[in-house]
Write a structure and sequence with these properties.
By secondary structure, the protein is mostly beta strands. It is about 10% helix and about 55% strand. Strands 1-2-3-7-8-9-10-14-15-17-18-19-20-21 form a 14-stranded antiparallel β-barrel. A two-stranded antiparallel ribbon has the order 5-6. The protein is elongated and about 95 Å long.
Length: about 500
Amino acid sequence: MRFRILLTAAIIVAAAGSLHAQYSADALRFSINQAGSTARFNSLAGAQTGVGGDLSSVNGNPAGIGLFTKSEFSLTPEFNNYKADALYLGGQTIGNKDKINLNHAAIVWHMPFKKQKGSDLETGWISSNYGISFSKDNDFNNNISYSGINGDNSIADYFAELASNNYGSPSSLPSGTLERMAYDNYLIGYDSQGYFPETDVNNEQTRLDSRKGTQSEVTFAAGANYSNKFYIGVSLGLASINYTSDAEYIEKGFNVTENNEYELSYRQNQFTEGTGINGKVGVLFRPNSCVRLGATVETPTWYTFDDSYNEVLNTQYGSTGLDSQFVNNSETYNFSYKLRTPLKLTGGIGIFLNNQGFISADVDYVDYSQINFSAVDNMNSDIIADNNREIRNNYRSAVNYRLGGEYKIENIMLRAGYGRTGSPYKETVSSDALKSDTFSGGLGYRINNYYIDLAYQNVTYNSSFKPYTLAGGTEPTATIKNTRNNIFLTIGSRF
């Protein structure tokens, strides 16, 4: 039941116009993330796989913690500014939201292997290091709003199509369904041809969507150093997600059948929470003092989710005052499911410049078509199958890359980076939706066993939303330029 309701709700749709089921959109949202890290590696746009020796390696390439020669601890808070610049029916609206978070915190314990007196300390297994980290891998906070005058259709057209496609006469409309609410609100009528909208065109449409929540992970890692040439590491991640969306669609116009002005409010609320587990295996090789080569295999994250969604449609009439008002009870739909995110393969290289700095580069491969739903207790198999079909039809593999560099001037480090995240959508859906660009820079200062790092990131990507869909494809679309400005501050100490 909830699948059909969510499908009709059209909270999120593909950029090119085909309606996506809400669960498949959520699956993509929870599968695209960038692991939280220290300000140092955030300055490099996250290009860290072939570098190592940083606390970000605990939840990045775990082989990188094998380079530690001392124990170390750091804390990285962040400030985020989110802006959504929306264009809808010729009107432009800008939404903003600010948030302070903990992006990363980690500790590594250095444990050298004991060797017999007089043996070579630089060959064989030299040390094993162990780490724990907290990382915020995704932030869902944003305010999205758009508004405009629609001269072609109304959301009532959408309600009428739903009722005509799913039911017969009004007596067959089930209580609590969106179609029943629309009929009881006099937004749609019925005749021998089926259901029809009672609203006129040139109506004012507004959608407000406030989102919040985070995706985070606690990681346990172990890494070892062999002859200062070869490093290997493994990690276990315990993931957690909470996501909330509070949305309202408002439409004002003229009801032709009732010969009166109307204002409708269609409210939707979603709350999703889940936990999962994943693992990583990483290696890092130093063929010489100037080059490091790294690689990481990140398993899928196996999640279990509990989802609650509710909706309500209310309408009032009156040209100058309140003539009549129709209020419905909100309907709530609960659903639990399992989700497997895609496998990720990462390779990286670090080129070091005679203790003056380094240049690093990373490449990821992720196949989003491998996202997969499964049922809890073998329930709702049709919903699971429909969403898996949506994923296969619309998602594809993507390649991400990151470039970064650090240059040292005495105790001060200058850093910069750039990253590109590939679009997860097939060309038939959209070639650019959710493709993001990251520009970053920062400074670092070292004194004795203490350090402080500051980083700035600017992330931009495009997305599209539809408040409803119509069979003829004439529904309106909001195109949105999303911008995130992030500031990171890391304070750390070696001991």
